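Practice problem 4.
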């Protein structure tokens, strides 16, 4: 879609993220929230009634009822992106798909093929690209004599609240699927290199005992195509007494410089009577509107649909990340390093923009 008219957007998925995106679209004067769909009536009705739009139990029903749609946001759980994305892409809708693009290379490729056939474009929701901390480091790496990137070390973790209370579908995911796409996309975006191999180790003990059959923590070491290394660590078992629900620390080492980025500590420590916490304001409200990193991402998606913004995370980059995280799980299972496919099959000639 390249028309400069208002973007007419449907939301697929009425959970936390779907509700956030719905409000962001409704508050953008160049976007119009048309409908929401979710098979869960409670989630669907909550978002639909709050934003005064119709709700549907299936994507197909939403598409039939609203031929005026020009775009869709896929905010379903990680493993459920394929069917919704293909249906919307086949209808010619431009898509913003929450990370990861899919949880298998085959599913990711199927989505991309459907988009090509339907004339749709895809933006992947790697929202940390809109975080000014990472943008600043990227510009420093690009525009000053900061040396070439040798190593990136990224630790992104959640407290045990996330897989046991927040996500009803955690057993169908893992710390790697839920967290590492953020980390690996940033490593590619900052360093300008792609992964060519990975070796991963992990522990599966605490969460299975709590009834969630997935990995507690995973560490993965990638070799990149420029010879640098990227080390990712993600855990889902931090104690709930941690000062924030997530812990995000990022280190870039170059041949001459180093950068340390602490994302979860946003500069305020709150000492209450029973705990210490780091207040978060990834999204804030001011003058009746919400602002923040994911809102900036949605606003760029609206402009992407309208044809005024073109530099966004692409389906190709989403495919590379999905392929790499799939390889992390293969390495976890077989205990060996896994080589990653490069070349035309992963559209590896596309730039990391």
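Answer key:
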């Amino acid at each position: 879609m390249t028309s400069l008219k208002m973007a007419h957007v449907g939301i697929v998925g009425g959970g936390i993220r779907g509700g956030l995106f719905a409000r962001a679209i409704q508050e953008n004067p160049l976007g119009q929230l048309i409908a929401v769909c979710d098979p869960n009536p409670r989630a669907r009705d909550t978002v639909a009634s709050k934003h005064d739009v119709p709700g549907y139990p299936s994507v197909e029903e939403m598409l039939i009822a609203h031929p005026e749609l020009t775009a869709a946001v896929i905010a379903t759980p990680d493993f459920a992106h394929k069917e919704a994305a293909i249906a919307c892409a086949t209808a010619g809708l431009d898509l913003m798909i929450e990370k990861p693009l899919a949880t298998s290379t085959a599913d990711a490729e199927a989505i991309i093929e459907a988009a090509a056939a339907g004339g749709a474009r895809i933006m992947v929701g790697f929202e940390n690209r809109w975080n000014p901390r990472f943008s600043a480091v990227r510009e420093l790496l690009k525009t000053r004599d900061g040396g070439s990137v040798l190593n990136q070390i990224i630790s992104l973790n959640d407290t045990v609240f996330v897989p046991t209370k927040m996500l009803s579908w955690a057993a169908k995911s893992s710390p790697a699927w839920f967290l590492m796409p953020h980390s690996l996309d940033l490593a590619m975006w900052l360093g300008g290199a792609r992964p060519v191999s990975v070796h991963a180790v992990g522990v599966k003990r605490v969460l299975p005992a709590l009834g969630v059959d997935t990995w507690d923590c995973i560490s993965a070491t990638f070799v990149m195509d420029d010879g640098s290394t990227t080390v990712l660590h993600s855990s889902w078992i931090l104690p709930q007494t941690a000062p924030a629900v997530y812990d995000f620390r990022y280190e870039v080492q170059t041949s001459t410089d180093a950068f340390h980025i602490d994302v979860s500590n946003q500069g305020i420590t709150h000492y209450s009577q029973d705990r210490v916490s780091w207040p978060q304001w990834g999204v804030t409200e001011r003058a009746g509107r919400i602002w923040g990193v994911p809102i900036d991402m949605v606003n760029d998606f609206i402009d992407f649909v309208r044809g005024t913004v073109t530099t966004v995370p692409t389906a190709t980059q989403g495919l590379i990340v999905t392929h790499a995280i799939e390889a992390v799980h293969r390495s976890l299972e077989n205990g060996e390093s896994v080589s990653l496919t490069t070349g035309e099959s992963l559209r590896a000639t596309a730039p990391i923009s």
